[in-house]
Amino acid sequence: MRFMMLVIPKGYEKAAADFAPPAELVARMTKYNDSLTKAGVLLGLDGLRPPATGARVRFAGGKPKVTDGPFTEAKEVLGGYWIIQVKSRAEAIEWAKRAPMQDGDIIEVRQVQEISDFPPDVQKAAGR
Question: Are 54 and 69 in contact (CB under 8 A)?
């Protein structure tokens, strides 16, 4: 089972475009990432630049509309993610609980949806 652990850092929606995390946090995060690798569960990971550097494309009435960041209506934004492969949701949650996060941060754990999870008609529509 693949899971995505989504990092939602407290206050990241207001981070400046040139934001950099504290070196001490990066060192702890690197150690955690190494533990995921050594356990053989890590498939991928990345940090994301602050929303001030991003853009959103909204779709309404058949037309896309682009809004440059920061996004004033955002209360929580993604700061990064891990993709892990484990045996269960409980195991994914256990890994998330070990992450070296700061006070107020959130990790949302979501299972990756596989094509085999869908009914046959949806699999067929996807060319499977």
Answer: yes
